[in-house]
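Biopolymer transport protein ExbD/TolR (hydrothermal vent metagenome), 131 aa
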Amino acid sequence: MKIIRAKKPHLSMDLAPLIDVVFQLLVFFMLTSTFSNPAIQLDLPKAVASDEVQQENVVISIDENGLIFLNEQSTSVDAFKDDLRILLKKMDKKSVNIKGDQDMPYKHFVQIMDLAKQAGAIQINIVHQKE
């Protein structure tokens, strides 16, 4: 005698809607995310030998157009010396790091070094990119 079994329904899950939702979430997060860029775009000159610089120093950045940034805050040449003097008074080590764009005019670099000395900077470090 032959036994007849009842057929079980074949259960399957359709993954297409799940994949659609996952891709929509991926696109949403890609479009809404923000990428942080450095505030100041500088093309630093390269050097083979270099020492590590400590971050407790004041950082002066000069871009290719001669704009001056004091700890990433834009400042004018006229206000630079007073602003730097205020920052240096708060520090024990009166050290300054200068980051200058490799395409900036040399006169801006010399002018900032002179103003930093007048403001009370004892040590002036020149920041460059390691090759």
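The mean pLDDT is 82. Residues 27 and 33 are 10 Å apart (CA to CA). ok done for today
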